[in-house]
Design brief:
This protein is an alpha+beta fold. The protein has six domains: 213 residues, 3-Layer(aba) Sandwich (Rossmann fold); 81 residues, Nucleic acid-binding proteins (OB fold (Dihydrolipoamide Acetyltransferase, E2P), Beta Barrel); 88 residues, OB fold (Dihydrolipoamide Acetyltransferase, E2P), CATH 2.40.50.140; 72 residues, OB fold (Dihydrolipoamide Acetyltransferase, E2P); 83 residues, Beta Barrel (OB fold (Dihydrolipoamide Acetyltransferase, E2P)); 88 residues, Nucleic acid-binding proteins (OB fold (Dihydrolipoamide Acetyltransferase, E2P)). The protein is 28% helix and 31% strand. It has a five-stranded parallel β-sheet with strand order 2-6-1-7-8. A five-stranded mixed beta barrel has the order 9-10-11-13-12. A five-stranded mixed beta barrel has the order 14-15-16-18-17. Strand 25 and strand 26 form a beta hairpin. 27% of the residues are buried. Bound molecules: 2'-deoxycytidine-5'-monophosphate. 2'-deoxycytidine-5'-monophosphate binds next to helix 2, helix 4 and helix 8.
């Protein structure tokens, strides 16, 4: 492997030059500064004390990867973030920490082991690759470097003055070259190149010519590049390698570890024949020691991986969940295997699975469902996620639940009676689950016909309720329990009808009358005037609260929701038929005699005949001196008040009246019989006679 180490201070142009040189040579460019930046970035993000060596324990769980000019930390591309001013001003601190340097130097050495590389940094020639084939110390004056850095920043829109930039460069030079571990210094065997007055091309060409001088593969001879698909013919098969001649007489070799179908102990000659066609991918370009021409190391494993990786690209494209086997578990995550695609590395980072470390370990040898999140076509690597599968399942379940809910909702219609479960009780009502995720509001006002003050008195969580859908709008449902309960007024009307007589409970005596219970919800009023027929008969002292009284329903007023009751309507009223008026002549029967008169019977009622109203003929002290009990007597009515139950009669009055009538009749007769004695009378009589 040919290794080029390029060291130098900040702003000397190392990265620009190294990138171009690597590209021209077909080598791998490795930017070690970016690695120090990436570590700094993560430490800053974790909010750690950069000066404290213990802070860097996080490196044990850190995955650092470089891919061309991209750099990933824990599989996240941070290529842009590491160039921030914050990282730039802080990077010197982690760079002087021993554990950071050891960790990064190990990594840098490892990735340069099997490749031709151009590596730039501060300690590449001195520490990382002390045996590098070519070491360059690229320098420029601080002013020149400050100018370059300024231009570079201005292009990115960052405007920092020349003086400030120069100061920053000088501070960094000082820090980089005076630190205790791996300070920036030119290796003894490095070629010093001052780029202050050179163009980029000039510097690049100088380095390439130095590479060529040092005996690397001549650029002009390199025909195929790493990763390229090549065809050739087998020209030799040995115990552990197959030699191939590629077009243009280019030599290639493939070793058993790169043969896709090779099984340990297999004899290569049984499978590979001279003269046969051969297809593979270039794994590496080296040089043939004898001829100094390129020697291409091929791999059919990579070749099949190239096809295989397409399968994963397609799986990713289709967003397909795959079941992969967990082969190995580390703290960083798990390596998986999918079907027969052994050439593809499948990695499940720990953060992509919602499991504890132990749970993750217990997955070994088990299969797990994953979704592909990243396919690295060049490195034949795939990153997967289990969390994504879980998220997707959750999404699907949610969508299914929504569809079921919508369908269930669509089926429901206003007026329908449904059963549901109370899932929550609120101040203003209860939420009822009707199944399939459909819920409705059972408003407080819809619980009962009565005024509901506390919803909890009616329903509690877990209750099954029967409700009617009364409104359906915008995906919402209004429910009613009340709609399914008969209105208490209707219940009352079923129970009571005008004319009904019943024994009612007096719940209250009020000035207006009695309040009488009808149902739990309603009471009726019996007005005072409806107590008795006779107005002297008083309600007070006769009826008390808590007693019952027989009443008759007189009126049911649905508009006012009032019921009028009457007690007297349940009683017969003998006075109602009494038609007698003062002066009327009626016949009564003497019922009983007492000191002041006699009780007399008239129709169904009782009247009174005072003793001094019996006769004017003689003085008596008892009625039966004239009328014995049981005698029917014609009398004149002196007072009749049916509302008060009062009838007073007089026989004397009738007697006097009879006498006067007789007297009147006598006089009338006498007048008729008397002769006329005036001229007028005589003339009148004569006229009368003539007419007769
Ligand atoms: O080249 P650069 O500006 O990207 O490097 C960033 C810092 O990293 C620089 O201040 C010094 C440090 N560094 C180092 O110490 N050793 C290296 N091999 C590369 C960089």
């Amino acid at each position: 492997m040919f290794k080029v180490a390029i060291d130098g201070p900040a702003g000397a142009g190392k990265s620009t030059i190294s990138k171009i040189v690597a590209e021209k040579l077909g080598y791998q460019y490795i930017d070690t500064g970016a690695m120090y930046r990436a570590v700094t970035y993560k430490a800053l993000k974790l909010g750690l004390d950069l000066e404290d060596e213990k802070s860097y324990d996080f490196l044990n769980d850190t995955i650092l990867e470089v891919d061309g000019t991209k750099i990933y930390i824990d599989r996240v591309d941070v290529s842009t973030e590491i160039r921030s001013v914050e990282v730039t001003t802080n990077v010197s601190t982690p760079s002087k920490i021993g554990v950071v340097r050891t960790w990064l130097v190990d990594y840098q050495r490892k990735i340069s082991e099997s490749k031709n590389v151009v590596m730039d940094g501060r300690d590449i020639g001195t520490v990382v690759l002390p045996n590098a084939d070519l070491k360059i110390y690229l320098d420029a004056t601080p002013e020149c470097r400050a100018k370059r850095r300024m231009i570079e920043r201005l292009e990115k829109g960052v405007d920092i003055s020349f003086e400030e930039t120069l100061e920053e460069i000088k501070v960094r030079d000082h820090k980089d070259s005076t630190r205790a571990i791996s300070p920036l210094k030119q290796a003894d065997d490095a070629v010093y190149v001052d780029s202050s007055d050179m163009t980029i091309d000039e510097v690049v060409n100088k380095i390439i010519s130095l590479v060529n001088e040092r005996g690397s593969v001549k650029m002009s001879n390199v025909k195929f590049f790493e990763g390229q698909e090549v065809k050739g013919i087998i020209n030799n098969v040995t115990k552990d390698a197959v030699y191939i001649e590629l077009e243009g007489e280019n030599k290639a070799v493939i070793y058993t570890n790169d043969l896709a179908d090779y099984v340990e102990g297999q004899k290569l000659r049984d499978y590979y024949y001279e003269g046969a066609d051969f297809k593979a991918l270039v794994k590496q370009v080296t040089k043939d020691k004898k001829s100094n021409n390129p020697l291409y190391i091929l791999s059919t494993k990579l070749y099949s991986a190239k096809d295989d990786i397409k399968v994963f690209e397609e799986l990713k494209e289709n967003d397909q969940v795959i079941e992969a086997e967990v082969v190995n578990v580390t703290r960083a995550g798990a390596d998986l295997k999918y079907k027969e695609y052994n050439n593809i590395k499948i990695f499940l980072p720990a953060k992509n699975i919602d499991l504890s470390e132990e749970a993750l370990y217990s997955l070994r040898k088990q299969t797990i469902e994953v979704l592909i999140t990243f396919v690295d076509v060049e490195k034949f690597r795939v990153t997967v996620s289990h969390t994504a599968v879980m998220n997707r399942k959750a999404r699907i379940a949610k969508a299914e639940a929504k569809a079921a809910k919508d369908a269930a909702y669509a089926k429901l219609s206003v007026g329908e009676t449904v059963k549901g479960e109370v899932v929550s009780v609120l101040d203003f009502g209860a939420i009822v689950d009707l199944g399939e995720g459909v819920t409705g509001l059972l408003h407080r006002n819809e619980l009962d016909h009565k005024l509901v003050r506390n919803v909890n008195d009616y329903v509690k969580v877990g209750d099954t309720v029967k409700v009617q859908i009364i409104k359906k709008e915008d995906g919402k449902l209004s429910l009613s329990k009340k709609a399914l309960i008969d209105h208490p007024w209707d219940v009352l009307k079923e129970q009571y009808h005008v004319g009904d007589v019943f024994d009612g409970l007096v719940t209250k005596v009020i000035p207006a009358g009695l309040i009488i219970k009808l149902t739990d919800e309603y009471s009726g009023l019996m007005p005072r005037s409806e107590y008795a027929w006779l107005i002297n008969e008083r309600l007070d002292n006769n009826v008390k609260e808590g007693e019952t009284i027989t009443v008759k329903v007189m009126e049911i007023d649905s508009a006012k929701k009032r019921v009028s009751l009457s007690h007297r309507a349940t009683l017969a009223n003998p006075w109602g038929d009494v038609k007698a008026r003062r002066g009327d002549v009626i016949t009564v029967e003497i019922a009983s005699v007492e000191e002041k008169g006699a009780k007399v019977k008239f129709q169904e009622v009782e009247g009174f005949l005072p003793v001094n109203e019996v006769t004017a003929q003689k003085r008596i002290s008892r009625v039966d001196e004239v009328f014995p009990v049981g005698e029917k007597v014609e009398v004149s009515v002196t007072d009749c008040d049916t509302l008060r139950g009062k009838l007073v009669v007089s026989a004397k009055l009738l007697e006097t009246k009879k006498e006067r009538d007789e007297f009147d009749r006598y006089y009338a007769q006498q007048e008729k019989e008397l002769p006329t004695n005036t001229i007028a009378d005589i003339l009148g009589d004569a006229l009368k006679d003539k007419l007769n």
